[in-house]
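Box 4.2: Ligand-aware structure prediction
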Amino acid sequence: MAKRRITIPPGIWEKCEKCEQLIYKKRLKENFYVCPKCGHYFRIGADIRIKLLTDEFKEIAEEIQPCDPLGFYDTKPYKERLKEARKKSGLSEAVKVGIGKIDGKQVALGVLDFNFMGGSMGSVVGERITILVEEAIKRKIPLIIVSSSGGARMQEGILSLMQMAKTSSAIKKYKDEVKSPYISILTHPTTGGVSASFAFLGDIIISEPKALIGFAGPRVIEQTIKQKLPEGFQSAEFLLQKGMIDMIVERKELKNTVSKLISILKS
Ligand SMILES: [Zn+2]
């Protein structure tokens, strides 16, 4: 007698990488992509993040596209990596920027996507962020950037490091000329050149729970300073305790919190 086989249609269940339980995808979505069993935060891409945060959104600066200024080649050509990243993320680069509405209030919103080469900042990420900030200055509206990044994009060498100075000076101009707040939202992980530039320049810095936030990784720091790092070092909770960030907000409360902050802090 043939064994009875139960077939599960693909795409209905998702496995939690932390507790390894199977979760019904619809349930996961309803729970803001947080595991209902163990509370693990699933990584979400820019498109889902934008949907969770805004009522409507119109992308800008999409025409700014990557090129390969150095003809860089590591184990594969940079051009090949860009192609793969496009396929994996469904995006043209590691950030999506545009003008959106949160509870009817107009905002300039940028969201980094870790699925595109680890959310790394090359010339296009820097340029799109700068265009977004300039648009926020022109319209005098709140600026919100959601970060998720491994840092600067090494395949673009010094051109990617320059983006740190460029985005930082754009944000300085925003702060000088616009009375609305710049809200920076840090998600897991926010590190390297992104943490050392626009991500930490927010008037208000919010993090999702348990996000890893820092410049260099713990192993590099331990080898450099030759000391053991404290427990929980570089977690959002540790940084909150040390006064490096302003608040930790659960994903399901994020839109509401940002909306309230904008209303309170508007000029
Ligand atoms: Zn879980």
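In the box above, the bound molecule is zinc ion. The beta strands are 13-15, 22-24, 56-60, 95-102, 105-112, 143-149, 182-190, 204-207, 247-248.
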